[in-house]
Amino acid sequence: MDKFEYTASVGSFAANQHSPHDMGGNVREWCKDWCDPAAKKYRVSRGAAWNFYVFPSYLSSSHRYYLGPDISFNRIGFRCVLVSGSGR
After folding, report:
1. How far apart are CA 65 and CA 38, in angstroms?
2. Which string of b and e fits 33-53 if b means at least 16 CB within 10 Å?
3. Distance CA 71, CA 64 (A)
4. Do 28 and 46 contact (CB within 8 A), yes or no?
């Protein structure tokens, strides 16, 4: 547990040894993947959310969950990624 009742502001936690900040535990993240690419009914979400600490098996970044793309919760979101030094 931490001092935040719900989500935490970006930069609230120290970076790990590889430099990323805030990589887990704030909100589950929508992924580009479809659960069943042929049906295109449910999208994959991964990771843990601020209220999932009561479900230890859900706390892994590899945990997959399936939701309809029209679903909205205060515990699911997305991550903006900036790749530096990629030569692009």
Report:
1. 18
2. eebeeeeeebbbbbbbbbebe
3. 16
4. yes
Q: What is the mean pLDDT of residues 12-31?
A: 74
Report pTM.
Answer: 0.62
Closest CA to 24 of 88, 77, 87, 73: 77
pLDDT digits (tens, 9 = 90+) for 5-19: 777 777 777 777 777
Q: Do residues 13 and 22 lie in contact, with contact meaning Cβ atoms separated by under 8 Å?
A: yes
Structural tokens at position 15: 């970076």
Per the rule left: phi > 0, alpha: psi between -120 and 50, beta: everything else, 54 is: alpha
User: How many Å apart are CA 38 and CA 25, to the nearest integer?
Assistant: 31
Q: DSSP for the chain?
A: --S-SS---TT-S---TT---S-SSS-EEEEEEESSTTT---EEEES--TTGGG-GGG-STT-EEEE-TT---TTEE-------SS--
